[in-house]
Structure formats: structure tokens, C-alpha cells
TrEMBL record:
The chain crosses the membrane at residues 12-38, 50-69, 81-97, 117-136, 142-163, 175-192. GO terms for molecular function: manganese ion transmembrane transporter activity. Pfam families: Mntp. Its main location: membrane. Belongs to the MntP (TC 9.B.29) family. The keyword ATP-binding does not apply. InterPro entries: Mntp/YtaF, Put_MntP. It is a multi-pass membrane protein. It comes from the Bacteria. It is found in: Cell membrane. It comes from Maribellus luteus. This is Putative manganese efflux pump MntP. GO terms for cellular component: plasma membrane.
Length: 197
């Protein structure tokens, strides 16, 4: 298979890759809204770090799926939704716990912490892995789709943090609880899509 397309990308191919990128970026957008709620004082470079992490993993996973191929497809399909749900529920639950504490302390949960950020990035990128596998089956060069998916996710994540940052809230701990609920609902959404649809 070829990683790079032998010719220029057509308009139809670009639109197809763009729509797939938009679909894959919905979860990253929701996570970014939660990050904006959690840290309203978020700076531009911090937002870029979050968006870059989400975009990197969203682009990396289809590339990995493209290389790995069908060998792990059946195994992954049986557990991918549980992995995503577990990561999102754990981080969302911690956010809710911090939000309902009497002292309202925000110091123990940092959405910019590397381990938390990687967990969120992986949880929102698992579906992209399966997309990469399908591209491998269809022998579609993966380089251009990866670029489009990464760019769309970065833009969606930046917009999500901006949106979350300016959602009105009387007190910051209420925003944390809302952000945690969003993450847990995203986890249930992933479970529902894989178990019942």
C-alpha cells in the first residue's frame, strides 16, 4: 500500500475526508468545552497544547489502524468502547468530585496535566483507529486523510475551549460539575453507539 497518494487530492476526496474529520472531531469538541469550563483563565498557548494533543492522537490513531490492519480489528471492536467509557468516566467523575467539595478547590485536577490530557486524547481518538483500518482495507493512501483529520480536530478543539470558557456560570465549581457530566455523557454515548446501534 501507498502512504502518499500518487496524484493530487480531488475535490470529492477532500470533501469526504473533511466530513469524516468533522464527524471524528465531535468528541474532541465536547472534551474541549469541558476544558474551557474547568479553566476559564486558559491562555492561548495552553489552549494550543490541549488542541494539539487532541489533534495529534486523532491523526495518529487512523495511521496506526492503517498499518495494523485487520489482525486486531475483531479484538479491538470488542473492547474499544469500554476503554473510551472508562477513561471519560474516570476523569469526569473526578471533575464532579472536585466540584462538589465544600472548599471548591480546583488545584487537584489539571486538564493541562500530561497524564490527564493523554487520557482524554486517547479516549476521543479510538474511533479514528477503526477509520484507519477501513482505509487500509480499501487501500486508500492515508497521508492526506490524516492531515485533514488532524487539522479539523485542532480547529474544533480550539473553538470548543473558547465556547466553554465563556459559558456563564455563577461559581467555578458548578462549571467543573457540568464539565464532568459532559465527559461522562460522552462515555455513555460511545457505549450506546457500540452496544445498541
Amino acid at each position: 500500500m501507498l502512504i502518499f497518494a500518487p496524484s493530487k487530492m480531488t475535490l470529492v476526496q477532500f470533501i469526504t475526508f473533511l466530513l469524516i474529520g468533522i464527524g471524528l472531531s465531535f468528541d474532541s469538541f465536547a472534551v474541549s468545552v469541558s476544558c474551557g469550563l474547568l479553566r476559564r483563565e486558559i491562555q492561548f498557548l495552553q489552549a494550543c497544547k490541549v488542541a494539539a494533543s487532541l489533534a495529534f492522537f486523532q491523526a495518529l490513531f487512523p495511521l496506526l489502524g492503517w498499518f495494523i490492519g485487520s489482525a486486531v480489528e475483531n479484538i479491538l471492536k470488542s473492547v474499544d468502547h469500554w476503554i473510551a467509557f472508562g477513561l471519560l468516566a474516570a476523569i469526569g467523575g473526578k471533575m464532579i468530585f472536585e466540584g462538589i467539595r465544600d472548599n471548591g478547590s480546583l488545584n487537584n485536577l489539571d486538564p493541562f496535566k500530561t497524564s490527564v490530557l493523554i487520557g482524554l486524547s486517547i479516549a476521543t481518538s479510538i474511533d479514528a483507529f477503526v477509520v484507519g483500518i477501513s482505509y487500509g482495507f480499501l487501500e486508500i493512501p492515508i497521508f492526506l486523510p490524516v492531515l485533514v483529520i488532524g487539522a479539523v480536530t485542532f480547529i474544533a478543539s480550539m473553538l470548543g475551549m473558547l465556547f466553554g470558557k465563556y459559558i456563564p456560570a455563577k461559581r467555578s465549581h458548578q462549571s467543573i460539575i457540568l464539565g464532568g457530566i459532559i465527559l461522562i455523557l460522552m462515555g455513555f454515548k460511545i457505549l450506546a453507539e457500540h452496544l445498541w446501534f
